[in-house]
Amino acid sequence: MKRITVFCGSSFGTEEIYREQAALLGKTLAQENIELVYGGANVGLMGAVADSVLNNGGKAIGVLPNFLRSKEIAHLGLTELILVESMHERKTRMNDLCDGVIALPGGFGTLEELFEMLTWAQLGLHKKPIAILNINGFYDSLIQLTEIMVSKGLLKDVNQQMLLVSDNIDELLDKMKNYKAPSVGKWIEKKEL
Fold first, then answer.
1. CA–CA distance from 69 to each of 40, 112, 188 (Å)?
2. In what order do the strands lie in the sheet with 101-103?
3. Over the stretch 65-98, which tens digit does the pLDDT of each residue have?
4. Contact, 83 vs 69, CB < 8 A?
5. What Gene3D superfamilies does the annotation carry (predicted)?
6. 102 forms bridges with which residues in the sheet?
7. With a threshold of 0.90, does the pTM exceed it?
8. Distance (Å, rounded) from C-alpha 188 to C-alpha 18?
């Protein structure tokens, strides 16, 4: 993996461990010579990951829609800042630039980005690993919800297993490096239920 896209909050959240782990992820990516692709802001967890990558000699590429330039405060110290016209173009560009995805704690935007990448993978539009760094159990309820989707017949188990999860950065990167995309399609047939 040469580049990983990180989706995360533009705020720090209520627990210091979010910021600490965001910084540790940035340091680890730099040490592993994996470039960061992210949303381009210098605030919150987004800024913490980028600053840590840069402070440890790594490369950070930001992708920021023009209309968010003032709201999210563009990071001016990046290796490269790519300005785009829309949120959809931002996600498409981030997907084009990366070899995998990691989600850290975040809000609606983080979830929307994560689930769009999962949906694209489920539809076979890419075969990249998609991972959650489950810091302090932040995503436990979401993981449980995906298990309910499987038990209720609305999601195939093999598609739920596409979502790689760990609370340990090294373990998560190892899972991503060894990921093999499923070869089955998205649709559940009535006979399968």
1. 9, 20, 42
2. 80-84, 60-65, 35-38, 3-7, 101-103, 130-133, 163-166
3. 988 776 658 888 999 999 999 999 999 999 999 9
4. yes
5. 3.40.50.450
6. 6, 131
7. yes
8. 37
